[in-house]
Design a protein that fits this description.
320 residues; globular; alpha/beta; 3-stranded antiparallel sheet; 23% helix; 9-stranded mixed sheet; single chain
Length: 320
């Protein structure tokens, strides 16, 4: 039976109470910068500059580093935004994203904070890569940028660029060697591999040492599978009880399967509606979610109980 625990509180503090190296993998999507006010004091996402936002996230992931096993993985989903400086002093500056124009918040009411960050009107802010490079500088291995391609993106009325239809999912680790079950997430090959065909999708896929052929073998990829690609085409979805964006379970599933084994503990320090927890428990993993907003914590408790029924145990705790 899988178990889920949701701790209510600021993750910059509640993470400090968790045991050293107690988590196998972390899958999370923090609040995007300047996107929405969740009505909580000291919430991440309302910082006055992108640099401040990056620093707050780095402080969270400094603590994540401590609780993550040395062979663990961090899967980090982040979206981007555009700076937009309005001419009218009575109309606040805004950030625009591929999800449309968002409400003005503390992060974007002051145009000087954007200009001081070197941003110009209509600049892409580059938040995902700012965070990724900052984590890399703090010791994380930046192993991969996975593209979440959305076949059903939010329409945009822009006429001087393409409609934004992707987000990033970064794979980060603490060391160059880590647990990664590539067999669990292999996908169907689109071409049939043939002997000595270097262009076949299955070429060398079954030979971990990188040899061209195994002894006496002249056929590659005989299982009809190929390594999973780094562009994942997954439609957006919403959890009907949530009035905020949630990432789809299909985006989380490969992270769970590749990054952990049955009975491992999966952490989401920005638990929200509990999507990571649902996928974790449905695949016989344990879940630990940290959530600042008590309302969201209770929402995720109900969602996890509905999804797992008698096959899971769910507990909500009050943090610091």
């Amino acid at each position: 039976m899988s178990k889920a625990t949701i701790i209510i509180g600021d993750n910059r503090e509640t993470l400090k109470t968790l045991p050293l190296q107690s988590v196998q993998t972390v899958i999370t999507s923090p609040p995007y910068w300047g996107l929405r006010d969740y009505g909580q004091p000291d919430q991440i996402g309302l910082e006055t500059s992108p640099d401040d936002y990056v620093e707050q996230l780095c402080q969270v992931f400094d603590e994540v580093w401590r609780v993550l096993r040395d062979d663990g993985t961090l899967w980090l989903n982040l979206g981007d935004s555009y700076a937009s400086f309005r001419d009218s002093k009575s109309s606040p500056d805004t950030l625009r994203t591929g999800e449309g124009t968002k409400v003005a918040t503390a992060a974007n009411r002051n145009p000087n904070s954007l200009r001081e960050a070197g941003l110009k009107h209509k600049d892409l802010v580059g938040i995902p890569w700012r965070v990724a490079f900052a984590l890399q500088a703090r010791g994380w291995y930046l192993r991969q940028d996975i593209i979440w391609a959305k076949p059903n993106p939010m329409p945009e009325s822009v006429t001087d660029r393409c409609t934004k239809s992707h987000e990033y999912l970064f794979l980060l680790t603490k060391s160059p060697k880590y647990y990664f079950d590539n067999q669990a997430i292999k996908e169907e090959a689109l071409t049939e591999p043939k002997a000595r065909d270097k262009n076949a999708e299955g070429y060398q896929a079954d030979y971990p040492k990188g040899d061209r052929f195994s002894a006496g073998e002249r056929v590659f990829g005989a299982d009809g599978k190929r390594n999973k690609r780094d562009v994942w085409t997954i439609g957006t979805s919403r959890y009907k009880e949530a009035h905020f964006a949630t990432y789809p379970p299909e985006l989380i599933l490969p992270c769970v399967l590749a990054g952990s084994k049955a009975d491992d503990l999966i952490l989401d320090p920005f638990s929200g509606s509990g999507t990571t927890g649902v996928v974790a428990m449905q695949n016989n993993r344990n879940y630990l979610g940290l959530e600042l907003n008590p309302e969201y914590a209770l929402m995720s408790e109900k969602r996890l109980m509905d999804a797992c029924g008698v096959f899971g145990e769910v507990e909500v705790q009050s943090g610091l």
